[in-house]
Design goal:
Helix content: 40-55%
Oligomer: single chain
Structural class: alpha+beta
Strand content: 5-15%
Number of strands: 11
Number of helices: 33
């Protein structure tokens, strides 16, 4: 490690104090020496590899803090304290910045630099005297790197509140000063306001800042995110993106949008739609380019570098959005627009913005907002940590099989895929990688009961401490506690109430009522199924036996199982003649593969989507295979949102986690994977058909308890006889699935619904239980996580030993990884709408040739619901389609819960 630049030792501080304050300065200097020794003697959380950093921080920063403590606590002279420390910090700012920058360049981890200052600040300043904000400054219109921001906050605290920027030019640091009413947008790019320049040593002097680029906030021209992608529909150029491009692009994007928000907040013109609402919608151009790429890479092909970057940026992004939604100046401008006559979509957008600002805490007092920022930042960090630990647990829990005879019952293609999974990770034999849910697909096929038990045990032990590196219990407890505290701070009984208010459910009472209505018949049906399985198995049933025995019974009753179905369910045909054909039949769209457009990983494919008349609609990206570093489950997200305001068409992505076959072998699916492919494409259609003006209202940006509705409706086409007959063909011969097999497949649709509904409700009830408690009611000991989970299910009669929740608390990424926290009920809530809409397609929708729903029905569904994003109350779209509110009866009948 290079030797850091020199930092003056403590004798300088003594001379400065004595020279300025005479005899009193000597007294203060002696007290500072004593305080300095106390602070240095404490054991901070830095390692031996950071000895140079520790030395220079102690020499340059600790005396500042010691001086402040002495002067305020022992002498009670705040003015003297501010003067002394301002002088000391000014003299020492540049050398310390140099040191930290050198250490950062040679690889000292960001987290360690952060821990250093987090350790120092609360021990040196009075509790109410200082708030540190990592990577952001609450009042500034720009965002800077972590080091410069730290010093900016310190200097501001000690008497320079007008400072709005820190820029580094070679050996000099420029602290920019700007009047509050000035706008970053209205200055010439090369122009600077009056700035305070700090030379390498000595007191600060005022002067004119240099012209030049803002090297800390301006993106290099050779960064692929510096300009819009020139690929079709602005598809990100993944082939050009390297890891080193992501961090600077994200930081520059955050800085750019903060500057744009500051311009909106300080605009002297009267608020109107253009300078306030649309200005907010137009802000963040760079961030819109880089953020979806980063999240795509993190979720679909993460490595340690990406995970570290994600962890670093998570609190910065949380603070970034706090800076918007806690800005009273912008909120006041939105309030001023409420009396104006606006078009329907803009009025709804204004209502949404105002609601989001209020729910975010904009009306809280300063102290409460400060605490809220701390909670949001910490929660974002914890949610990222939880998600990363869940992925690690899936990797750590993979079952390694060295004896191939243990794989009896698995078809050849699956066995070959497991061998490939082992080879991909440099191991011999076969590797069964875990899927996110509790139940693992191979439990239904493996004849070796010991292997089933081993696989089931590996699944349910995730996050429980069996593997220390992926233990999630302490993390989830802190998440639940902090969410509860935040809800109370915002005026809600608990976090679940806060979440429900923003959904179509409205209240937790409505959620609880629905779950309570479904639980008893589901549990009763599961109990009846268990008795049937015990008879079939000839003895007691264990949780790892359920899927295997259920598959045996299903095969006996319907002469059907996955091994019989899989040869007829080849991925390519399922997509082309199933998923895409159904969309063409209903909506007239065509998908044409564009192999020349690169995806972000091996196996990712891109299709161009065109309307019936040939007009371009957008791009569809399919990522169907599991890989190391990809999170479990299936999901859809956008790379580009549709918006008339931005002139952009959508680019949407579907993700599944199908085991990749051996080279040259076909990808054969289970029936569940077929349903998942149709489900996720339903989300894709929601994004592709979006036809709104404002980007934040686009596509699937709807309440979470509505977002699953269109995707669940799309599942019906997997079972549609005309569609099923097209894609269900033998992968070798092309022969259609035999009629008796088709009939058996459709007849078996309700089989096992007791198990399926009970395991789903178990997860939904766990989610609600963790979020319907106050901060003092959350357990504190990680060992209590299992007890709390058991209590949560037992209290409502949903604890069934043989049917564990679909996700146990320790790997419940939907809720503790963020996104579906207190909202996992959304799937069943949306299914009420889905089942009633399927009834509409079956009985009330316009029909075409052959009496089947066709273009007229699809066009109606598209125009009334799929195209409208969140441009109004989503339930109003539903009422327009059905002419009434949803009826729960079709759902009860579908799931066999009518008795």
């Amino acid at each position: 490690m290079p030797s850091p630049v020199h930092v003056p030792r403590r004798r300088w501080w003594r001379r400065a104090l004595v020279g300025r304050y005479g005899v009193r300065g000597r007294e203060v200097a002696r007290a500072v020496d004593a305080e300095y020794s106390v602070l240095v003697a404490r054991r901070p959380p830095w390692g031996e590899e950071s000895r140079a950093l520790r030395f220079h921080v102690q020499q340059a920063i600790v005396p500042d803090l010691a001086a402040y403590r002495v002067l305020t606590r022992e002498h009670g002279d705040a003015a003297v304290a501010r003067g002394v420390v301002r002088d000391l910090m000014a003299a020492q700012l540049l050398p310390v910045l140099r040191v930290v920058r050198v250490l950062d360049r040679v690889g000292v981890p960001f987290g360690r630099l952060r821990r250093v200052t987090r350790w120092l600040v609360p021990r040196a300043f009075p509790p109410a005297g200082f708030t540190i904000g990592w990577g952001q400054d609450d009042d500034a219109g720009l965002r800077f790197d972590v080091t410069t921001c730290f010093y900016l906050r310190v200097l501001r605290h000690y008497g320079a509140p007008e400072l709005t920027g820190v820029f580094c030019y070679g050996d000099q640091v420029v602290l920019e000063q700007m009047p509050r009413s000035a706008s970053h947008q209205n200055r010439h790019p090369g122009e600077r306001c009056r700035s305070l320049r700090l030379p390498p040593a000595g007191p600060a002097a005022c002067g004119q800042g240099d012209n030049g680029s803002m090297t800390d906030t301006t993106l290099a021209a050779d960064n692929p995110f510096a300009s819009p992608s020139d690929l079709p529909f602005e598809l990100p150029d993944f082939a050009a993106v390297r890891h080193e491009h992501l961090r600077p692009a994200m930081l520059a994007g955050l800085a750019e949008q903060r500057a744009e928000w500051e311009a909106i907040a300080t605009d002297p013109a009267e608020p109107d739609v253009a300078n306030t609402v649309e200005a907010l919608e137009l802000s963040g151009t760079l961030l819109r380019r880089v953020s979806p790429v980063l999240s795509t890479l993190v979720s679909s092909c993460a490595n340690d570098e990406l995970r570290e970057l994600e962890a670093e940026l998570a609190p910065l992004q949380s603070a970034h959005w706090d800076a918007l939604y806690l800005d009273r100046r912008i909120f006041d401008r939105l309030e001023a627009l409420t009396a104006q006559d606006l078009d329907a979509e803009t009025a709804w957008l204004l209502r949404t913005y105002r609601k989001d600002f209020i729910r975010a805490g904009v009306q809280l007092d300063d102290a409460s907002q400060t605490r809220l920022r701390e909670l949001n930042s910490r929660l974002t960090t914890l949610e990222t940590e939880f998600s990363q630990r869940v992925v690690k647990a899936m990797d750590a829990g993979a079952v390694h099989v060295t004896d191939a005879t243990r794989l009896a019952g698995l078809d050849e293609g699956t066995v070959a895929g497991l061998a490939q999974a082992a080879a991909d990770r440099g191991r011999e034999g076969h590797l069964i990688t875990l899927q996110l849910p509790t139940q693992q697909a191979l439990l239904a096929q493996a004849e070796d009961r010991a292997l089933r038990e081993e696989l089931f045990t590996a699944s349910v032990q995730r996050g429980t401490g069996a593997d220390e590196a992926s233990d999630t219990r302490a993390t989830l407890l802190e998440i639940a506690r902090l969410r509860a505290e935040r809800a109370r701070l915002l005026g809600y009984e608990h976090h679940a109430a806060y979440v429900a208010e923003d959904g179509t459910a409205g209240t937790t009472a409505a959620v609880n009522e629905m779950l309570a209505r479904l639980a008893p018949p589901a549990v009763a049906n599961a109990a009846a199924e268990a008795e049937e399985l015990a008879t079939a198995g000839g003895g007691p049933v264990e949780p790892w036996d359920w899927s295997f025995l259920a598959e045996t019974v299903r095969q006996e009753r319907f002469s059907i199982d996955d091994s019989v179905l899989r040869p007829y369910l080849e991925l390519e045909r399922v997509l082309r003649d199933g998923v895409f054909h159904a969309a063409h039949r209903l909506f007239g769209i065509t998908l044409t593969e564009r192999p020349e457009l690169a995806g972000y990983a091996d196996g990712v494919r891109v299709w161009e989507v065109t309307e019936e008349d040939g007009r371009p609609l957008g791009l569809f990206v399919g990522d169907y295979y599991a890989r190391e570093g990809k999170r479990g489950g299936a999901w859809m997200h956008n790379l580009v949102d549709q918006s008339h305001l931005l002139g952009q068409r959508p680019v949407v992505v579907n993700n599944l986690n199908i085991t990749r076959p051996a080279p040259g072998e076909p990808t054969l699916l289970t029936w569940d994977e077929v349903i998942t492919a149709f489900h996720e494409f339903g989300h894709a259609l929601h994004g592709l058909f979006s036809d709104v003006h404002h980007p934040s209202l686009s596509g699937a940006n709807v309440p979470r308890d509505f977002v699953e509705y269109p995707s669940q409706v799309n599942e019906m086409w997997a079972r549609d006889p005309e569609v099923l007959a097209r894609y269900a063909r033998h992968h070798e011969t092309g022969e259609p699935m035999p009629t008796e097999l088709l009939d058996a497949l459709l007849a078996s649709a309700q089989y096992g619904e007791g198990f399926a509904t009970t395991e789903y409700l178990g997860a939904a009830l766990l989610d609600q239980a963790w979020h319907q408690v106050g901060p003092d009611e959350v357990p504190t000991d990680p060992a209590e996580v299992e007890d709390f989970s058991t209590w949560a299910l037992e209290r409502v009669g949903a604890s069934v030993r043989l049917v564990p929740p679909r996700y146990r608390s320790t790997y419940f990424n939907h809720t503790f990884g963020g996104g579906y926290d207190a909202g996992y009920y959304s799937y069943i809530w949306s299914e009420v709408l889905d089942a009633d809409t399927v009834r509409w397609f079956e009985t009330d929708a316009p029909t075409g040739d052959g009496g089947l729903p066709g273009r007229a029905a699809g066009q109606r569904f598209r125009e009334v619901l799929l195209s409208r994003g969140h441009s109004a109350d989503p339930l109003s779209f539903y009422r327009e389609l059905r002419g009434r509110d949803a009826d729960i009866q079709p759902l009860l009948e579908r799931r066999g819960l009518t008795t």
